[in-house]
Specification:
This protein is α+β, with helices and mostly antiparallel strands and 379 residues long. Helices cover 17% and strands 37% of the residues. It contains five helices and 20 strands. It is rod-shaped, with a radius of gyration of 47 Å. The relative contact order is 0.06.
Length: 379
């Protein structure tokens, strides 16, 4: 009679019905459930416990757990149930809401597989390797068990497809931080930075979450052939903000402007009256510019090039020529040096030296010459 009643009770359930029950026994590959308000037992195959692969049923449930389940199959004396299917149905509605609102949420990494990470959100969520971090990760083995923040980037319930991204969260946070930094920057600010990347035209420096460009012309007061001759990746530097383009998120920086200028303390390096070595850098109609130190040029006016009269400086000098000059005047404030080449040259005598008579003429008297002339006049 009891068996007949069970059969009648079984037939009162249909596939797709939702039931609740208590776990009475956990076996390796299945779970036995007592259906609430019924004397019937149900069976949950291990494949129906979770959206993820499960090795042992005890990894998911324990005796005494109360579960919400969906009926997959009605057999004569038992019901075949699914925990996974009902969990997924409930999860999809929640996940669609998160996806539509761009919500950021936390989840634990359940497994590391080829090509990425697996997350259990009631359905199987996959995180491709390229969407885990904002940088390349070679080995993901230590990610299992970690809790990360995610955004849903693809969701197709019909295909049971759920793609998550931790990288999107990082980039969104960086974007917010970037705008905050851009809004706070002022022209002339001097900041600490780190050289991130070197190119042929300059170096990109991280100033705390955003990169700015130091053009090659702003690396040093000296002429720079290659940026790598002056800076290296990872180097800590001080930079000055030259320009901020908030619309295009571009920042122009200078390392040069944070360094002592070549004219600093020039009066000590080139005091008035000192003699220094230099190189002719430019010839102009009114004189020649001589480089004494990197970034420091002084003028030799055409009148200070030679004692001789010259029409143009290139009659005496040529660019690239090494010369010695004397410092005539120093003006550090206006960054001006007056120099002279002429002061170091011997002045040519424009008069005759004392004439020395031949040896045989020594002792010859002027009176004798006058006397001879007088005698000639008397004749």
């Amino acid at each position: 009679m009891s068996e007949e009643m069970n059969q009648v009770e079984v037939r009162s359930f249909e596939v797709g019905d939702q039931v609740t029950g208590q776990v009475t026994k956990v076996e390796e590959k299945q779970v036995i459930i007592n259906i609430n308000d019924s004397k019937l037992d149900g069976i949950i195959p291990i494949s129906e416990l979770s959206s993820l692969h499960v090795e042992k049923a005890s990894d998911v449930v324990a005796e005494g757990d109360e579960l919400e389940l969906e009926i997959l199959k009605v057999e004569e004396e038992a019901l075949i149930l699914s925990k996974r299917k009902l969990d997924a149905e409930k999860s999809w509605a929640n996940l669609e809401k998160k996806f539509n609102e761009g919500e950021i949420f936390e989840a634990e990494i359940k497994d590391v597989v080829k090509g990425g990470l697996v997350v259990d959100l009631g359905v199987r969520g996959f995180v491709p390797a390229s969407l885990v971090e904002a940088y390349f990760v070679e080995d993901f083995s230590d990610y299992k068990g970690k809790t990360l923040t995610f955004k849903i980037v693809e969701l197709e319930k019909g295909k049971n497809r759920l793609i998550l991204s931790h990288r999107a969260v990082i980039e969104e946070e960086k974007g917010k931080q970037k705008h905050q930094i851009l809004d706070s920057l002022q022209l002339g600010d001097v900041l600490d930075g780190t050289v991130q990347r070197i190119t042929d035209f300059g170096a990109f420096v991280d100033i705390g979450g955003i990169d700015g460009l130091v053009h090659i012309s702003q690396l040093s007061y000296e002429h720079v052939e290659k940026p790598s001759d002056v800076v290296e990746e990872g180097q800590k530097v001080k930079v000055k903000v030259l320009r901020v383009d908030r619309d295009n998120e571009r920042i122009s920086l200078s390392i040069k402007d944070t360094l002592p200028g070549p004219w600093a303390n020039i009066a000590e390096k080139a005091p008035k009256g000192s003699v220094l070595d230099g190189v002719v850098k430019r010839l102009v109609s009114y004189g020649a510019f001589i480089e004494l130190f990197p970034g420091v040029e002084g003028l030799v006016h055409i009148s200070q090039i030679s004692h001789k009269h010259i029409g143009t400086p290139n009659e005496v000098l040529k660019e690239g020529q090494e010369v010695q000059v004397k410092v005539l005047e120093v003006n550090e404030r206006d960054q001006r040096l007056s120099l002279s080449l002429k002061e170091l040259q011997e002045k040519e005598q424009d008069y005759l030296t004392d004439y020395e008579l031949p040896e045989e003429s020594k002792g010859f008297q002027l009176g004798e010459m006058i006397g001879d002339q007088l005698k000639n006049l008397k004749k």
